[in-house]
């Protein structure tokens, strides 16, 4: 009977904290911002990378005086991903004004010099200060050099000389850092963003309903209600956890939309967050939300003021980032004991789930079990703090 | 009915309440009168069971507030020092929240809310968020919140502090009404006029001790001062100008 009443009171407190925090528009926006900024930033970077790669492959070459070099134009058009168009009359201005990334000019005497086997001039107009255009400029230059090499080989063969004689070096370039790899590196941040979202999502309620409540003077009248202190500690913790889970869902949906929008498969990356991933993601991060909300609640209750609580949160937020940062420095591996560490377990589970591997149920259980245990201990601590006159009435 | 027997409370080296005893009867307004820092708020906090006395006993009706704080709290309506409202909740939502925590369900809570909105003349502000409320409006919300579960005992910690004349009168009218309904009202104040105008029984407290108690008339007799303020100063052992 008493337990039932306590449970009811816990739910009443939880509901009120959720309602109250949903009305705190300013805090809500700041949570939304800090949760959304990461994925959006990543999306932006990925998009840039993808664009550049596509640009370099599919190049549009504006040529001024196309009719003066029909063979060159024909040859270029035959290359894959190349489209030759009539160049603008004000070529230099067009490049300077960024209307074109590169323009090729065929001078009037091109055909004459070409026929006479004298170096026929071609002008490639580009803007070296623009990094984003560099791949297309390089591709144009490479194509022109390739054409020149083919012509010179033909001329040598006509004169009975082996083209190999004039190629003392055969240089083959092997680029190690492909765009895919760079993209994959950026994507390793996604698990970290989801975890930070879980932390940040619960932070507002955890601090406002404890340190904030005391600072407003509303803790004393609240504690006059005939409810055991554990109901207050648990209700506030539940509200913070729900907010954290909501924040995780939001970030997950955002990342899912992002991976779809960016068409990562075009870049050879297999990362898809679909509806079937939602449950495993929540199973991985949900227990962490229980734990972080309980930790935030305990620390904020201990803090002397709301401001002090916020300062502590600024330090604690490093916790969900730590596994991601460490794993980017050196591989963590996955020994079984790691699942039993409150922040590490969820991180490893999350990377597994996002990487398309479904961890063993025992791993989920180990992670959830320790997170829950730690949460229970922390809630007991918070309950104890709520019982302390020293804490309730300030120092 | 509230009874405090020889309650003591110490904070570090400071003895805030040093053996206070008094009884506040049902159907009467009891005034807890004393200067700032006399131990009024600490005494009230022990009564509404958010502080435990170091020694002594405290009872609400026949419930031991030290042993069974929640049972005691269920019989109490409390207006604490500083109202502690939630700025983002409306007046009505304050009543809903505290009513629900006190265990009042839907229909009963709705009816009680309507009663209080009328009693405190707060219909116009019922569905506004309390963030922009005036001091008087906040007092009304805190008072309504304290009364939402229809408690037999009402504790008011300096309820008229900082209120304008009209709001003060309104609060006094409600306090009288609560007494006339047969409730036990304990009212703390440092304002003489207020206590003499309102209270049936006065407990004068200074430096954590009860220095005198009785009806307003008895106190005047006891000290030989016709003016209750002079009586108070004499009882509290204060010399005007020296303290405060």
Structural account:
The complex is a heterodimer of chains A (395) and B (244). Chain A has 395 residues and is mainly alpha-helical. Chain A has 2 domains: 2-49 and 182-392, no CATH class; 58-174, abc type-2 transporter like fold (3-Layer(aba) Sandwich). Helices cover 68% and strands 5% of the residues of chain A. Chain A has a 4-stranded mixed beta sheet with strand order 2-1-3-4. In chain A, strand 1 (59-64), helix 3 (70-78) and strand 2 (82-86) form a beta-alpha-beta unit. In chain A, helix 10 packs across helix 11 (275-302). Chain B has 244 residues and is α/β, with parallel strands linked by helices. In chain B, helix 3 (91-101) runs parallel beside helix 5 and helix 8 packs across helix 9. Chain B has 9 helices and 10 strands. Helices cover 38% and strands 25% of the residues of chain B. Chain B is globular and about 50 Å long. Mean pLDDT of chain B is 89; it is low at 240-244. Chain B has helices spanning 40-47, 69-74, 91-101, 106-119, 135-147, 165-180, 192-198, 216-223, 228-236; strands at 2-11, 14-24, 28-33, 55-60, 63-64, 76-79, 153-157, 184-189, 201-206, 209-214. Chain B has a domain at 86-150. The chains are: A mainly alpha (395), B alpha/beta (244).
What is the element layout, followed by pairings?
The complex is a heterodimer of chains A (395) and B (244).
Chain A: H1 2-22, H2 25-57, E1 59-64, H3 70-78, E2 82-86, H4 91-96, E3 102-105, H5 110-115, E4 123-126, H6 134-158, H7 179-187, H8 189-216, H9 219-223, H10 229-261, H11 275-302, H12 306-316, H13 318-329, H14 344-354, H15 361-387, H16 389-392
Parallel strand pairs in A: 1-2, 1-3
Antiparallel strand pairs in A: 3-4
Chain B: E1 2-11, E2 14-24, E3 28-33, H1 40-47, E4 55-60, E5 63-64, H2 69-74, E6 76-79, H3 91-101, H4 106-119, H5 135-147, E7 153-157, H6 165-180, E8 184-189, H7 192-198, E9 201-206, E10 209-214, H8 216-223, H9 228-236
Parallel strand pairs in B: 3-8, 3-9, 6-7, 7-8
Antiparallel strand pairs in B: 1-2, 1-4, 4-5, 9-10
């Amino acid at each position: 009977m008493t337990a039932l009443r306590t449970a009811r009171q816990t739910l009443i407190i939880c509901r009120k904290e959720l309602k109250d925090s949903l009305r705190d528009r300013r805090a809500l926006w700041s949570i939304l911002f800090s949760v959304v900024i990461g994925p959006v930033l990543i999306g932006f970077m990925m998009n840039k990378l993808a664009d550049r790669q596509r640009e370099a492959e599919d190049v549009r070459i504006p040529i001024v005086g196309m009719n003066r070099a029909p063979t060159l134009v024909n040859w270029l058009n035959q290359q894959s991903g190349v489209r030759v168009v009539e160049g603008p009359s004000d070529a230099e201005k067009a490049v300077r004004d960024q209307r074109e990334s590169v323009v090729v000019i065929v001078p009037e005497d091109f055909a004459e010099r070409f026929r006479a086997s004298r170096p026929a001039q071609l002008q490639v107009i580009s803007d070296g200060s623009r990094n984003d255009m560099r791949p297309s400029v390089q591709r144009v230059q490479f194509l022109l050099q390739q054409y020149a090499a083919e012509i010179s080989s033909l001329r040598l063969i006509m004169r009975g000389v082996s083209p190999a004689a004039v190629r003392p070096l055969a240089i083959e370039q092997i680029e190690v850092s492909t765009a895919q790899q760079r993209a994959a590196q950026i994507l390793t941040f996604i698990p970290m963003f989801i975890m930070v979202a879980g932390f940040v999502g619960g932070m507002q309620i955890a601090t406002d309903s404890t340190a904030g409540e005391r600072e407003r003077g509303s803790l004393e009248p609240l504690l006059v209600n005939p409810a055991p202190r554990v109901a207050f500690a648990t209700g506030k913790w539940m509200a913070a956890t729900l907010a954290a889970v909501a924040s995780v869902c939001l970030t997950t949906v955002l990342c899912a939309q992002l991976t779809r929008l960016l068409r990562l498969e075009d870049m050879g990356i297999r990362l898809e967050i679909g509806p079937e991933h939602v449950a495993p993601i929540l199973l991985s991060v949900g227990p962490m939300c229980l734990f972080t909300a309980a930790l935030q609640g305990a620390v904020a209750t201990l803090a002397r003021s709301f401001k002090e609580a916020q300062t502590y949160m600024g330090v604690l937020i490093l916790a969900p980032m730590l596994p991601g940062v460490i794993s980017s420095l050196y591989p963590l591996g996955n020994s079984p004991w790691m699942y039993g560490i409150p922040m590490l377990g969820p991180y490893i589970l999350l990377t597994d789930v996002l990487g398309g591997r479904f961890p063993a149920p025992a791993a989920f259980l180990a992670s959830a079990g320790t997170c829950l245990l730690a949460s229970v201990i922390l809630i007991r601590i918070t309950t104890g703090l709520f019982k302390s006159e020293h804490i309730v009435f300030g120092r | 009915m509230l009874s405090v027997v020889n309650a003591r409370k110490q904070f570090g080296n400071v003895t805030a309440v040093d053996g206070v005893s008094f009884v506040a009867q049902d159907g009467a307004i009891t005034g807890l009168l004393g200067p700032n820092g006399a131990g009024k708020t600490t005494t009230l906090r022990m009564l509404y069971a958010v502080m435990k006395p170091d020694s002594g006993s405290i009872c609400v009706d026949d419930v031991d507030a030290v042993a069974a704080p929640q049972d005691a709290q269920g019989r109490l309506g409390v207006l604490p020092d500083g109202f502690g409202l939630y700025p983002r909740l409306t007046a009505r939502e304050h009543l809903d929240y505290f009513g629900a925590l006190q265990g009042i369900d839907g229909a009963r809570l709705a009816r009680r809310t309507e009663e209080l909105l009328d009693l405190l003349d707060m219909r116009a502000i019922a569905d506004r968020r309390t963030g922009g409320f005036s001091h008087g409006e906040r007092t009304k919300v805190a008072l309504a919140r304290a009364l939402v579960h229809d408690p037999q005992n009402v504790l008011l910690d300096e309820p008229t502090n900082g209120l304008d004349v009209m709001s003060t009168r309104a609060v006094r009218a409600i306090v009288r009404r609560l007494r006339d309904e047969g409730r036990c009202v304990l009212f703390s104040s440092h304002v003489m006029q207020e206590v003499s105008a309102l209270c049936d029984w006065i407990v004068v407290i200074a430096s954590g001790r009860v220095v005198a108690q009785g009806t307003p008339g008895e106190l005047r007799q006891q000290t030989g001062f016709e003016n209750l303020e002079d009586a108070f100063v004499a009882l509290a052992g204060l010399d005007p100008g020296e303290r405060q």
